[in-house]
Design goal:
Radius of gyration: 17 Å
CATH superfamily: Vaccinia Virus protein VP39
Distance between the termini: 33 Å
Order of helices and strands: HEHEHEHEHEHEHEHE
Number of strands: 8
CATH architecture: 3-Layer(aba) Sandwich
Number of helices: 8
Oligomer: single chain
Helix content: 25-40%
Structural class: alpha/beta
Length: about 220
């Protein structure tokens, strides 16, 4: 990490961050961690945090969780969040699948966001892509009725794969039937800028948890993005 990132880590991580591997068994107590009850948004793969910090700053009414494996990226995100005076952001370092499986209760997330995940473009590596049937089923189970799974990618074949896999998940419905219009509120990432430069089209997908499949005790709120 850079000197600035190391300072941010020392200053903010004890308050804003936790390691997934160090979480106590059972569901993450977001109410205590944030100091309030509010809709919870989970972003998977926050990278260097430029987009994540802006999204959290723009939606102070939600409790914003970001999970990322790279320490330098999390440190940079904390620097950016501090500059924007963000107070509704908490960070988790580690595997998103473990977080969802072991520490997120079913039916509790208002939204899950997955922007520009590693496309693993070589065919022999496609099995490493995070969007697979088991993962989508897991995400769907953690969404509250009406909660949304929002994805974006600049790789055409990966986008088609995302569409196919999510469309096959019976707990979800495609909000726009096909590709979603690019939301004006989603900041342009460096990957998106590079894709435009290289002539690749950006595709958004937004799927929603069926509201008729709710179970007792599940909420029905999501952030007004």
């Amino acid at each position: 990490m850079t000197v600035g990132q190391e300072r941010a880590w020392e200053r903010y991580w004890p308050r804003w961050g936790q390691d997934v591997s160090g979480l106590p068994a059972g569901p993450l107590d977001t109410g205590s961690w944030f100091g309030r009850s509010a809709p919870v948004v989970l972003e998977i793969g926050s990278g260097m945090g430029e987009t994540t910090s802006k999204l959290a700053a723009a939606a102070p009414e939600v409790n914003y969780l970001a999970v990322e494996v790279y320490q330098a990226g999390l440190a940079q995100l904390m620097m950016r969040a501090a500059d924007l005076d963000v107070h509704n952001l908490r960070l988790l370092r580690g595997d998103a699948v473990i977080l969802l499986t072991d520490h997120i209760e079913p039916g509790t997330l208002s939204e899950v966001r997955l922007y520009f995940p590693d496309p693993w473009p070589k065919k022999r590596h496609h099995k490493r892509r995070i969007v697979q049937p088991d993962f989508v089923s897991l995400v769907a189970s953690r969404l509250a009725p009406g909660g949304r799974f929002h994805m974006a990618t600049d790789w055409e074949h990966y986008a088609e794969h995302m569409l196919e896999v999510c469309s096959a998940e019976t707990a979800l419905r495609n909000v726009y039937s096909g590709w979603a219009p690019r939301p004006e509120w989603r900041p342009v990432t460096k990957f998106e800028s590079r894709a435009h430069t290289e002539g690749r089209e950006i595709r958004d997908l937004i799927f929603e948890r069926h509201t008729l499949r709710s179970s007792p005790g599940r909420g029905n709120t999501r952030p007004g993005s």
